[in-house]
Amino acid sequence: MKTWGGRFTEQIDAVFERFNNSFGIDQRLILEDIEGSAAYANALAKAGILSQEELKQIGKGLAEIKKRVEKEPEWLARQSEEDVHSFVEARLVESIGDAGFKLHTGRSRNDQVAVDTRLYLKRAIIHAQVQLKSLNRELLNLAKSHQDVVIPGYTHLRKAQPILFAHYLLAYFEMFQRDHDRLEDCFRRTDVMPLGSGALAGNGFPIDRELLRIELGFSQLTRNSLDAVSDRDYQVDFVSAASLVMVHLSRLAEDLILYSAPEFGFVELSDAVTSGSSIMPQKKNPDSLELIRGKSARVIGNLTSFLSLLKGLPLAYNKDLQEDKELLFDTLDTLTDCLLVAQVVIRTMKIDRSAASRAVQGDFMNATDLADYLVRKGLAFRRAHELVGKIVLHCESRSIQLQELSLTEYQKFSSLFGDDVFIALSLENSVGARSVAGGTAPARVAEALEQAERSLGKGGVPLG
Ligand code: ARG
Prior knowledge:
Layout: H1 14-20, H2 23-26, H3 30-46, H4 52-71, H5 74-77, H6 84-96, H7 109-144, E1 150-155, E2 158-164, H8 165-190, E3 192-193, H9 209-216, E4 220-221, H10 225-230, H11 233-259, E5 267-268, H12 287-310, H13 324-348, E6 350-351, H14 353-359, H15 367-376, H16 381-397, H17 407-413, H18 421-424, H19 427-432, H20 442-457
Parallel strand pairs: 3-4
Antiparallel strand pairs: 1-2, 5-6
The structure holds arginine.
Arginine binds near residues 110, 113, 319 and 321.
């Protein structure tokens, strides 16, 4: 059913019709469309535009469509219609007759699609937040069960200083926590009710927008009708927050791809999330993580597309805006899939303790501790740095580690060295010395784990 045939005398071109139709994409909004329509019918009745009888019929008609969608999801796949809004209206008229024609009074698909999308996105944001928390739960569980494991910390992908594996995992916990916060912010800006803005100038009937707001569960009303029908910022906020989640997931994926490679080896990925090679029988490839890393590109692309879509659009609604939903839904689906897969990877991953302890032995990762030792004996740090550099060079030429140099040899470099230098060079000291707030010392990490546990229990938006 066309919702706009009156002023047209020629048939729509078949190619253009297919091009114009968005039902294949926006049918995902059908429950929200029905919800918005039911609330709008109440507002129309309150404004005296619908009789109580008509209101009842519309309510019943909408409920029937909803029931069918829920019972028979494949029904929608068989339908073709311009968009979800025309679809619902057409089915309504089919089932209740003329009263259905009154539902669109004062309303436009422009404010309708805005309210539908906001309702849909609010739920999707909460869902994404739940997924983020679940991922953080996995990270925290893994960290808590491996509190004694030390791995190399890297800068420039070169071994730098030893760190607790739990400290490493908590770094990602922090990132996902910030992502959760960002989504909270995004929720707040999505939680604004646009219905009643009409096509662009506002509704010509005395619609009680406050009633609509309450009934549809929004916290605020949009304040400007032009903005309300053309604003997609809340979606960009979401795609932007999702892009950052994907960047974090992609970095985690990259780390774990490396750490599970034999060259590093302290992580072992489960068979459940790896796959083989069709030619090389020995291979076990980290495809799950590579796909997460790859899919981050898609979401970043969606953000770029979104910004490009909006840039240069004159006020108010333009059909370009119909392109928003594919970007939004693809972002949502990709994000959700990646968060789920990441949870499985973390849950099923094993830590090779002996590979980890081998990895933290060599490569002069305690050189900073040696310089710090000299500082504690009174030498200025810059001088200590210089001197330790020379000692490292000397050890390198003899293929030995700092802890293998004898005290006599140490004392040739500086009389400040005593036999306590070997304590300073121990792994326990290296890790334990970094005991400032936020550092990797076991006591600090134990506190951080407790803090993380507490913060997982909290959440601004009710978790569904
Ligand atoms: N399918 C459209 C969209 O998603 C709904 C709004 C259409 N409005 C219009 N005046 N053509 O943006």
